[in-house]
Design brief:
Chain B: Keywords: Cytoplasmic vesicle, Golgi apparatus, Membrane, Protein transport, Transport. Chain A is an alpha+beta fold. Helices cover 55% and strands 9% of the residues of chain A. In chain A, the strands form three sheets. In chain A, strands 10, 11, 12, 13, 14 and 15 form a six-stranded antiparallel sheet that branches. In chain A, strands 1-2-3-7-5 form a five-stranded antiparallel sheet. Chain B is of the alpha+beta class. Chain B has helices at 25-40, 83-101, 106-111, 113-123, 134-165, and strands spanning 2-9, 14-19, 49-51, 62-68, 71-77, 124-125, 128-129. The chains are: A alpha+beta, B alpha+beta.
Chain lengths: 1256, 166
């Protein structure tokens, strides 16, 4: 054996190592591939050897080759071998190789599960670290499922190095195995407050990543993150948190208000540009979320814009880039504040950096106004000329068109100018956007009637100079423009100065080189032109001229009849026959022009892009029904449809043209006019608005010179757009002068006469009137078009898919029998807050599920009532003992917070939702509107919101609590059904973690520690709500919980139930404060003022409110006297009533269920800081797990470990005292040994436990 | 999230490639080529961000790079990362390499790509930033290297014995 190892080492000395391989590759530059293939052969030999060192060396070389692009998946098994080496050196090589080339479909991965598990639990932290790093790259759903629990244990490893890696990898585990999210989340949350900054940062990282995809589920963490934000000094963590807040604010406007101030402070104070930038970004997000209906935050906007300007002016290109990027976000909501920096942005257009130019272009879009559009476009046109590289130029082109056409050509005052711009753009070399220009030309010509004369003239020139566009092969994209030109000239041929010339231009032989669809348009429109020409010539009674025109058509059309393109061929042959017939008639001296032009009579109106979609399906029409029997799906029939199509189409299309006679047309035109008159969307052209365009040079003088140049030249005779800028300037000046004389009244008239809304331009813009009084024809919509809400939805939205990815575990959880669903549940509150906006934005699908949920809640509410009745009986016993302990309440605080050395972080509680509300409602800006809305939504009549400071809206909690109970009971059912052991084990593990939440309706099985599988009977339902007071009108039950956010606060949840037939209103809750405990009252109210309960109670309704108390010492239980006053309102009378109660703060209520792991627990006991005490319970007649469950539930403990009839338990007070229990049972005797760092507290807790069991 | 970390030289030769999402070897090479093409044609004094190529990412992804002497360090990240933060991270990465290799140059990366991977693994894990503190990174890397050395020493005596025997 020894010899074998020695031999291996010797072999190794002759092997190539990685360095040799690299050197070899560098020395064989000529035949690299050949050299590497010999190396791979060597590696294959090495891998066959037994020596792990040789194998590791080979794998190391493979990793390098993999980087060079060689597939090394064939060595996957060897990689696994090296991974499982006991030596760290080799293990690391193996894991590196695996992380580089393993992926989900690598089949050997399933062999690694146990090895990885072993490495994860290795005593050597670097073995664990390397395994975690590797796993993060190749984790599969199977691995994630099998190892999730191991990794979760590592999250509380003693070494921060392991903790941070374990926390980070959890994100990957969640992605692959979403079911793990809920069980792991509480611990992940704990890690947000880990003492090690690295671990904390990792936890922030993971939660931010999760929340980014699914922000609403993480809204409840906002207070925690807020705390971190104000306390952390780590810029990385700060950036992440601030980015997260940017994602959360849109969901909760109140959060935004709270954020503005600290963020503004950060902006002022930080020196780190990265942090500053993220702050500005988030402030922008906040401002966007607040922009609707909020008092203006102009100061914040100004601050942002000002800081961004500093960034943009910086010489650092990176800052400049980011500044522009952030500026574009502001632009969407606050365009005016950005517009004032136009100079700066235009300057950036000249930047040598393309990224920066592109960003600046984005900004321009929002900065144009009527005033500056021409100027900006002129500048862009200059850039188009200068630009190198087609991508940037294309980008410029699309931007110019975007800018000009935005919001229905809102900013264009002179369409002649725009047409000239479009024509100029056709001169661009090699652009791909010919169709874009073409569609703009068509759109403008069709919709702006006044511009047609000019447009037609321009298009005729374009057609005349078509060779310039088509001459160069590179310019293929641009010839699309000819499509538009031909169509415009044909359709609006009555405006042509010289139709004959254009007709000739359209029938040139060269046209045959154009793409088919353009030729088709040429042919069709040549026919239209022909009709126009005939009309003019016949009018002149020069019959010969008309006949010559016909002859021209007959001469030229055969060229198209021979076209390979079906469409062209068909149209050409139709028209050729028609013209031949016309010629025959002409020879007989028959006047044909009228009839010919009737072929093309009528006007084509623009149709809205979605008009077709919106035509409602008539009743009784089933579009999916077969008209004929469905064809059999044999292959042979596949080709038939084509053949039919080709043969039959001509038949169909031929009669289409000829059938329509004059009468029919007239009838249709009449009908259309009628329809237009009734159509509110159709704006008719007023004849007076049609000015004849005079400034442009006469089109008829354009010399037809055939210069074929490959270099693009300015199209001769076309007006330059530049001159319009000057003209426009003059015109505006003139107008301004005129305007001074005129009165405001006149202006009003003008505005209304324009027939177009100018709603968003600033006041000064209104002064600029368009050069032409232009009617922009609105696109036609079908009558009774369907409402357009569903327009914007894109079913393929990638974010939706992402949402499903992470949402699934949380949504499915409704079925899962676990209570920690809370974290996912939390976001419900904001929507239920009556935030109508966000509710309306939600998709219908979600809505329906929400509705269902709400229905369910209603049911549960009923069920809960009956349950409470039972609970009431159960908890009466606690009341009896109150007086014994009450007297000690005012003792001075013995315990200080210093004892809390191990600052174990708080876990999530049931109070999360209300925590958020508490937290948010303390925001400096009160959000009365929202809270009022809440009340109005939940209850019938609004209540003045005086007490908004304490318990603004506790309603959402109540249904949630009931839901908890429901889920719990369903859990019991499921439990019975499922016999599979593995399943159970998993569930129990989950429960164990969930158990850390405080629960109002606890279940018993949770007390089983990880892994112990035992089939135990379900527990009866329990509740911590105990009766507070009751009379004939009202019943109050309450529960007290420590507040996680603050060590000196407890939250008292009181459920008020209306027992009578009358309406209860104006409820006021008041407590007589003691020195030690005080009810928190809103600022400004006196120490004896009562708190208004923020709801009213109709008969038979119950509702929950929460009150916060501050306590100083928690070692003693105590009682507070209080009164509830309320008005009972009958139909005819209303009476004032009151109900006295005693609020019992037990020591138990200061304990918070806190998870603890056995290692930490052992350490705690070893430390010797704890003082012991013990208690014996006799005659306890219940199963051990029930006993544990009761302690857990009623006294907020968690089970650390359980072995047979012995269990260790842990809890922590709100002030950080550790309480450890060792519970043993034998027969009916239960002995509890307890340790705590505060003996008084411990004594009281034990007494309370004793009481609990003495009642059973 | 960081989608990929690439290091290549002025001629586009890859010196390190770390993809946090699986691609086939061919695609990886294509991505490296495309990224090099995008990055190399940029001037020295332009900004360090550019919108991702066609292959890697989409509109949500950005390439953030720095150019040091003969090497390009390129991070492909999505919008959850702070642009300036990543630039700092690249700086930390390079400084760490400089400390670990003592005046790092391209040759170090060529011959010790495995070590570079190990250093990177202490900074970024599974596409998420693990550690940004250079001293912490170096401490962990050194501790692991020490462990590796101690293991080598264990095997040495055998070799030594063998050499003595012969």
């Amino acid at each position: 054996m020894a010899l074998k190892i020695v031999k291996g080492s010797i072999d190794r000395m002759f092997d190539k190592n990685l360095q040799d391989l690299v050197r070899g590759i560098r020395n064989h530059k000529e035949d690299e591939a050949k050299y590497i293939s010999t190396c791979i052969d060597e590696i294959k030999q090495e891998l066959k050897q037994d020596n792990i060192a040789v194998k590791a060396n080979a794998v190391c070389k493979l990793t390098y080759l993999q980087m060079l692009g060689y597939d090394v998946s064939w060595a996957a098994f060897n990689i696994v071998e090296v991974m499982s080496s006991s030596k760290f050196t080799y293990k690391r090589i193996g894991y590196l190789a695996a992380s580089q080339c393993f992926h989900e479909s690598t089949d050997v991965i399933m062999l690694t599960t146990n090895q990885i598990r072993k490495d994860l639990s290795s005593p050597n932290q670097y073995d664990t670290g390397v395994a975690l790093t590797g796993l993060s790259c190749f984790v599969t759903p199977d691995l994630a499922r099998d190892l999730a629990n191991d990794i979760m244990t590592l999250m509380s490893h003693t070494k921060p190095y392991i903790r941070k890696k374990a926390v980070l990898i959890m994100y990957k585990v969640f992605l692959k195995y979403p079911e793990s999210l809920r069980p792991a989340f509480p611990r992940l949350k704990e890690k947000l407050e880990d003492p090690d900054p690295g671990v904390q940062s990792a936890a922030v990282n993971v939660i931010c990543e999760l929340a980014r995809r699914n922000p609403k589920n993480y809204l409840s963490l906002a207070p925690l993150f807020f705390k971190l934000m104000t306390s952390s000094t780590n810029n990385w963590v700060l950036i992440k948190i601030i980015k997260l807040f940017g994602a959360l604010t849109p969901l909760e406007p109140r959060l935004g208000k709270k954020l503005i101030e600290p963020l503004t402070n950060l902006i002022h104070s930080t020196s780190a540009m990265s942090l500053l930038y993220e702050c500005v970004n988030t402030v922008i997000a906040v401002l966007i979320s607040l922009s609707s209906g909020m008092p203006n935050h102009s100061a914040s906007i100004q601050l942002c814009v000002q800081k961004l300007r500093i960034l943009i002016e910086d010489s650092d290109q990176n800052l400049k880039y980011l500044g522009l990027l952030a500026m574009s976000k502001i632009l969407k909501t606050h365009p005016k504040s950005v517009q004032s920096h136009k100079d700066l942005i235009l300057q950036c257009l000249d930047d040598k950096d393309e990224s920066i130019r592109l960003r600046a272009l984005d900004l321009l879009y929002g900065m144009v106004s009527k005033k500056n559009l021409m100027e900006i476009v002129k500048k862009l046109m200059l850039h188009v000329d200068k630009a190198e590289g087609t991508t940037y130029r294309d980008e410029l082109l699309t931007k110019i068109i975007d800018i000009c056409s935005q919001s229905n050509y809102q900013y264009i005052t002179n369409f002649e100018w725009y047409i000239s711009i479009l024509v100029e753009l056709t001169r661009l070399e090699g652009t791909r956007h010919g169709h874009l220009i073409a569609s703009q030309m068509l759109d403008v010509a069709i919709r702006v009637k006044a511009i047609r004369v000019f447009a037609v003239a321009q298009m005729a020139t374009l057609l005349d100079n078509a060779h310039l566009l088509t001459g160069n092969m590179q310019r293929k994209g641009i010839c699309e423009v000819l499509y538009a030109a031909a169509w415009i000239c044909g359709e609006f041929s009555e405006h042509l100065e010289n139709p004959m010339q254009t007709l000739e231009a359209m029938l040139r032989p060269k046209v045959a080189t154009l793409p088919g669809h353009i030729q088709a348009v040429y042919v069709q429109n040549a026919a239209k032109l022909f009709a126009t020409v005939l009309k003019s010539q016949e009018g002149n009674t020069e019959s010969t001229a008309a006949q010559e025109t016909s002859q021209l058509m007959i001469d030229r059309l055969p060229l198209f009849v021979q076209s390979a393109n079906l469409e062209v061929q068909e149209r050409a042959s139709c028209i050729l026959q028609l013209v031949k017939y016309i010629q025959k008639l002409q020879q007989k001296d028959v006047e044909v022009s009228e009839e010919v032009s009737a072929l093309f009579a009528g006007e084509l109106n623009p149709v809205a892009p979605k008009a077709q979609k919106k035509v409602p399906v008539p009743e009784g029409l089933d579009l999916d029904a077969w008209i004929n029997e469905p064809p059999s799906e044999s292959e042979s029939e596949d080709e038939q449809p084509k053949a039919i199509f080709a043969k039959e189409e001509p038949k169909h299309s031929r009669p289409r043209h000829t059938e329509v006679d004059e009468k029919e047309l007239a009838r249709r035109r009449e009908a259309r006019k009628q329809e237009q008159a009734n159509n509110p969307f159709y704006i008719k052209a007023s004849p007076s608005s049609q000015k004849v365009y005079q400034e442009g040079p006469g089109v008829e003088h354009i010399p037809v010179v055939q210069i074929d140049l490959s270099v693009p030249l300015k199209v001769p005779g076309l007006p330059m757009s530049d001159q319009y800028v000057k003209l426009e300037e003059e015109r505006r000046q003139k107008e301004r002068a005129e305007k001074k004389k005129k009165e405001k009244k006149k202006r009003k008239e003008k505005r209304s006469g324009r027939g177009k809304k100018h709603d968003s331009g600033p006041e000064s813009e209104e002064d600029i009137t368009p050069a032409h009084m232009v009617d922009i024809v609105t696109e036609e919509m079908p009558e009774n078009a369907l409402p357009s809400d569903d327009d914007e939805k894109d079913p393929n939205d990638p974010h939706k898919a992402l949402d499903i990815d992470l949402d699934k575990p949380l949504a499915d959880s409704e079925k899962l029998p676990v209570r920690s669903h809370r974290a996912a549940e939390a976001p419900k509150s904001p929507t239920e807050d009556g935030d109508a906006e966000s509710a309306a934005l939600q998709e219908p699908k979600k809505k329906s599920s929400k509705e269902k949920r709400e229905k369910k809640k209603d049911k549960e509410r009923d069920r809960k009532k009956s349950k409470e009745e039972k609970k009431k009986k159960k908890h009466k016993h606690e009341e009896k003992e109150e007086d014994l302990l009450g007297g000690q309440a005012d003792e001075p605080a013995v315990q200080s917070e210093e004892t809390s050395e191990v600052a174990a972080p708080p876990t999530s509680t049931s109070a999360e939702v209300s925590d958020l509300d508490f937290w948010l409602s303390n925001a400096p800006v009160p959000s009365n509107t929202q809270e009022a809305a809440t009340v109005a939504a939940e209850e019938a009549a609004p209540v003045p919101e005086a007490a908004s400071g304490t318990a603004p809206d506790s309603e959402p909690d109540e249904p949630k609590d009931t839901e908890m109970e429901e889920s719990k009971s369903s859990k019991h059912k499921k439990k019975k059904q499922k016999k599979e052991k593995e399943e159970k084990e998993k569930k129990k593990k989950k429960k164990h973690h969930h158990h850390h939440h405080h629960s109002d309706g606890g279940g018993g099985e949770e007390s089983v520690q990880n892994g112990t599988v035992e089939d135990e009977e379900p527990l009866p339902p329990m509740s911590n709500y105990c009766l507070l007071a009751e009379n004939s009108y009202i019943k109050m039950v309450n529960d007290i919980q420590g507040n996680l956010q603050d060590g000196s606060q407890v939250v008292v949840s009181v459920i008020f139930e209306n027992k009578c037939e009358s309406f209860l209103k104006s409820m006021e809750f008041n407590v007589l404060d003691s020195l030690n405990s005080k009810l928190q009252r809103p600022e400004g109210s006196g120490p004896h003022d009562g708190l208004t309960v923020p709801f009213q109670l109709p008969p038979g309704v119950s509702n929950e409110a929460r009150f916060v108390f501050t306590v100083q010492s928690i070692v003693m239980p105590q009682k507070l006297k209080g009164t509830l006053t309320f008005i009972v309102k009958n139909e005819d009378s209303s009476t004032h009533e009151k109900l006295d109660f005693k609020l019992h703060f037990t020591c138990t209520s200061y304990l918070i269920t806190t998870p603890c792991y056995s290692d930490a627990f052992a350490k705690l006991l070893e430390s010797g800081d704890l003082k012991g005490s013990s208690v014996r319970l006799e005659g306890v007649n219940m199963p051990f797990h029930h006993l544990l469950a009761r302690i857990c539930f009623h006294h907020h403990f968690s089970v650390v470990e359980r072995i047979d009839s012995c269990a260790s338990m842990y809890s922590r007070s709100i002030q950080g005292h550790h309480v450890c229990l060792l519970v043993k049972t034998s027969g009916q005797t239960v002995s509890i040994d307890a340790k705590c760092d505060e003996p008084t507290l411990l004594g009281n807790v034990l007494d309370e436990i004793k009481q609990t069991f003495s009642q059973c | 999230m960081i989608k990929a970390i690439l290091i290549f030289n002025n001629h586009g030769k890859p010196r390190l490639s770390k993809f946090y999402e699986h691609y086939s070897e061919d695609t990886e090479q294509q991505i490296i080529r495309e990224t090099f093409h995008l990055v190399s044609k940029r001037d020295e004094n332009v900004c360090n961000f550019l919108e991702g190529g066609m292959l890697i990412g989409g509109s949500d992804y950005k390439l953030i790079y720095r150019h040091y002497a003969t090497l390009y360090f390129v991070f492909c990240v999505d919008s959850s990362e702070s642009e300036l933060g990543i630039l700092d991270l690249i700086q930390v990465f390079v400084e760490t390499l400089d400390k670990c290799f003592e005046n790092v140059c391209e040759l170090d990366l060529i011959f010790h790509v495995d070590k570079v991977h190990n250093i990177l693994a202490e900074m970024v894990m599974g596409g998420m930033v693990l550690e940004t503190n250079m001293n912490e990174i170096i401490t962990q890397v050194d501790a692991q290297n020490k462990m590796e050395k101690s293991e080598v020493n264990l095997t040495l005596p055998v070799l030594f014995m063998f050499e003595c025997m012969t």
